[in-house]
Amino acid sequence: MTAARAARSRPATVRGGRSRAAVPTWAKSAFGVAVVAVMLFPLYWMVNASFQTNQQLARPSPHWLPLGGTLNGYRDALSQQGGHLLASLIIAAGATVLTLALAAPAAYALAQLRSPGGRTLLSVLLVVQLVPGIVMANALYQIFASVQILNSALALILADATLAVPFAVLILRAFMTAIPRSLLEAAALDGAGAVRIFWQIVLPISRNALITAGLFAFLFAWGDFLFAATLNLNTTTWKPITLGLYDYIGAGTNITTWNAVMATAVIASLPASLLLTIAQRHIAAGLTNEAVTD
């Protein structure tokens, strides 16, 4: 014990015999705080600008704090972009449900049922992740135009699910592979079929992975711009908030109402922030294959 303490008390050495002093803990903490502050500054400025008046924002040196702030930006954002926010919520929720409905059975089959061609399918799923989004958007445009579902919520839900399903399958399969086969075999001996085992055993155990995959699917759909701009050209009914915000700035008429633009961005970021905060523990467990038996 004495020798170990002496070894820890000696300063670290580098090549050539020179001593290297350890970096103090406070210095590491200060560096970490500085890095986080730099990364979060754009977010802070977005929130700060959303509470300022347009006259304050037009000054050469805007206020660092929303002194004499106003909620007019949020009123304008909700009145002009409220429908787009609702459309994004419906599209993202629909894409999430469809993604999990397709990805969970596929992942279970690849992980536990020894499906023929499973390795080939996994390779295909990995390759699909490398396909540029613009290529998929053009292909989906041709397909959806032929079945006449362009400019609809269904088109955007299917497109966003197409992007999210391969990723969700990979996450769920990695988790379901860790489920003990003895547990599934015991259920089979009790007379449970494959569907019952999947529904009553595999899905409850895979709760963390399902939440993780569902959250990523929701975020994919919520932040999608490419599919929305390609598949939703002639309607404002199902225009998501990403496209609405783009038109809001690009229209030219709102270029001076930056508080409304920033307020729209703040409101659009709230659902993702809330979901990430609420599901943080499940995401950590789902990504690390933690505790498949509760």
Automatic annotation (TrEMBL):
An annotated GO cellular component: plasma membrane
UniProt keyword annotations, A-Z: Cell membrane, Membrane, Transmembrane, Transmembrane helix, Transport
InterPro entries linked: BP-dep_ABC_trans_perm (IPR050901), MetI-like (IPR000515), MetI-like_sf (IPR035906)
Membrane topology: Multi-pass membrane protein
TM spans (from-to): 21-45, 85-110, 122-143, 149-171, 209-231
Record Pfam families: BPD_transp_1
Domain ABC transmembrane type-1, residue spans: 85-279
PROSITE patterns xref list: ABC_TM1
Listed SUPFAM superfamilies: MetI-like (SSF161098)
Cell location: Cell membrane
A biological-process GO annotation: transmembrane transport
Family under the similarity heading: Belongs to the binding-protein-dependent transport system permease family.
Protein name per UniProt: Carbohydrate ABC transporter permease
The species this protein was found in: Streptomyces nigrescens
